[in-house]
Amino acid sequence: MDRTASSGGRRRRARGSGFVRYWIKEWSSWLLVVPSVLFFLFFSWEPLLRGIYLSFFETRGFEPVRFIGLQNYVDVVSHSVFWQILRNTFVYVFWSLVLGFFVPIAVAILVNEMRWLQSFFRVSAYFPSMVPGIAAAMLWMFLFEPSEHGLVNMALGLLGIAPLGWLQDSSLTIVTIVLTMTWRGFGAIMLLFLANLQSINNELYEAAAIDGASIRHKLAHIMLPHISPLIGLTLILQISGVFQIFNEPLVLTEGGPNNASMTLQLQSYFYAFRYFEAGRSVALGVITFLILMVITLVFFRLQKKVSD
Amino acid sequence: MSKPNSPRLISDLELRQRPVKLLYGMLFLLMIAVTLICLLPPIWIIISSFKDLKEFYQVPPTLIPRTFQLDKLARTWQEFSFMQYYMNTMLVTLGTLFFTVTFNGLAGYFFSKLKPKGSALLFVLVLWTILLPNTVGLVPLYSNLVDFPILHLNLTNTYWPLWFMAAANPVTILIFKNFFDAIPDSLLEAAHIDGSTKMGIFFRIIVPLSGPVIVTVIILAVNGVWNDFFWPFMLLKEQHMWTVIVAIYNLKTSLPQDIQFIGLTFAIVPPVLLFIVFQRYIMQGATLSGSVKG
Q1: If you count residue pairs, one on A and one on B, with CB atoms under 8 Å apart, how many are there?
Q2: Residue A207 domain-assigned (yes or no)
Q3: Within a domain: A5
Q4: Which structural domain range is residue A301 located in?
Q5: Which CATH class is domain B80-293?
Q6: Which residue in B49, B65, B60 sits closest to A150, CA to CA?
Q7: Nearest CB to A134 within list B37, B119, B248
Q8: ipTM of the complex
Q9: Chain segment A129-150, per-residue pLDDT in tens
Q10: Are A49 and A183 contained in the same domain?
């Protein structure tokens, strides 16, 4: 590592450096990050730690009043809605993998192949990401209106499909939410894949073509291996994103109908700000947190095994 | 327009074969379909907000409006004081920009160039903030903002918390750090010998060299503010403090649908204009922040 500008001229004196000497030299560096450290402390680190602490207490308002051990956790887990939410989460994960994970990769490959209007296609695919999240959710709420009023149902009607209930239909509500999230979110991931695809050395394709490789071979043996690290990364981001879904169900369904689209994060919010059970809210947060940590660790373990 | 040498699966030579040509045609149509799905919904909302009342509620809805009422937009703008929400959003944006660039920039400088002993530990803590899911801190953070520790201030219905949170943005710190890493140390050393302080070096050497990264960060921040919902929604309870996004969400239940469409239009148009003007920077920024997270 390079020596920094400040220490460059002082190498001679650095030998006898004690605590005092360190601070004489570095106090002005640390002073520059004092505000940042305070911001992180109050808005990020302290709330996290106090959240964990709070989850072991009975709460009044946001204050702990009595230590009750794991009672909040027991209450949260034994509530029937918890199992419904876990089931929902799996359904969310499933559809996020089918749609949210697959769509950006497919579109990136598609855009990359285009010889004509390529930059227009690229810009258009990113366009939905510019629509603010809440606005996008409201927009799709109008489009997914049940009965033949809704534009989506109207379009399906042209194909001869009867109008669907979408958000009001408990078996479709999660798919519909994931669809709207994918619509808004895929552009940014698509750009990552596109940049990645364009960094492939063209000579590999040319050499493969000379050896008589088909398009399918080039896809399987050159393209996919090249983008597979990024695929792994987006996979884990996609899954960890699912556990934090909040805005869309809040705007579109409020978790309904009958909790059919309730998410961990939304329920945690409801516990805190609708039922005023701060302790249970943070307990659910900690549970979500632990599930996510386990998934992430397992993923990195697997990834290491694959790359070794 | 396309570069002849960009790496593609289907080579020019293969494209001459008939079945490949057919496949390519299908892919092109698919791409058109994707484009339409991306562009049409917001465009339809925007043009529908110009329809008159009768056409708006017509079943089935018209795709291309036959009526065009500009004054309805003007009336809604007036009546629901969107000017106020725009000004509020602007104010949030300005403060956010100041806090984002100054404090994340200084932190990036600290981690990239100053690097005193012990800073690596702090850097790990900052990185963890990106990785750790924010599911636990919500409630305690809210209670901090209602009654700020030590000072006992109630920060709801002010923009301070939004600005402060922008100052602790690990992704932006990483973007700054990565950029500063490429600035040669010899430049800073020269300034140091000339007697500049660390702060002086930051403002006189680093900042003037950092035009591109500052532009990227600004664009990401502007877009972030325009999108931001949760904390503005939680904190800005008084109507005269609402940002545009909070306004369209809060007005959702009380307004007829045609007015909601107009509100949506007001929320969608500014970022779209921003995108049309700065699309290159915005897409660069998106790629950058995405790759930083990875």
Answers
A1: 316
A2: yes
A3: no
A4: 74-307
A5: mainly alpha
A6: B60
A7: B248
A8: 0.85
A9: 889 989 999 999 888 887 777 7
A10: no
